[in-house]
Amino acid sequence: MKKKISVGSILVYLFLTIWAFTTIYPIIWVIQNSFKAKDKILADSFSLPVGDLFTTANYRKAFGNLNIFGAYRNSIFISMMVSLLVILLAGMAAYALARYCFRGSSFLYSMVVSAMMFPVFATIIPVFSMETSWGIVNTSSWGLTMLSVILPQVAGNLAFSIVVLSGYMKSLPLELEEAAYMEGCNAFQIYFKVIMPLTKPSFATVAIFAFLWSYNDLFTQMFFLRRPEMRTITRLLNELTSQEGTNYGLMAAAVTLVVVPVVIVYIFLQKYIIKGMTAGAVKG
Fold this sequence. Notes:
InterPro entries: MetI-like, MetI-like_sf. By secondary structure, the chain is mainly alpha-helical. The chain contains 13 helices and no strands. The radius of gyration is 23 Å and the shape is globular.
């Protein structure tokens, strides 16, 4: 049987198409202007970069003057470590809050939820002072400098991750854990052998969000990454655009280098984001 298409469905899809176009076109506009010279952008910013308009000078200047690959290495390392630590810590905390009833558990969960209301701007000064007293801020050690960024980013992602994971874990059948307990498994074995495999969609969601948030977190990086060789891609290209002033071609190339990897990651992993955010919404 042919599915009938209602007028309401047509209007909904039309609205969503227009909305998607208004979201996607600015990205396309920035990418196409990254292949134009500065004067060409000012004269004709909406034409496609073909013929005389096309140039790779902006990218040659960005890669020639800066250590782009080293900055990408720092960004990927920090983001991956943040994702791994968030999965490990938030997963165990979420399991304890979802399955164990102890005095103060409800209050503790309320504190976790309330922690989501505090932005990073409100805590950056005491965090910076604390890490300075530890001697890990602005040092010549690459590992310590990376650690100084990883720790506050992990802390900033924990509350959201615990809420998402605990909501999913509460929807899992308790009988599976009881069966594992009867087979002789302890709490850690139940968590790693039963809970984690069943919670893969939610863990994937948390890992992706933590990775992208860490990758784009320019504010924290501005405080802790002062040495040129320690800078991430967002920190490095922010310095580039601030030095070049109104060189719109170079600014467009810098934005492209920062945004395109994130867009690619989201395109390939969007199904895990959607599945993980909605899988624990209905219990049945």
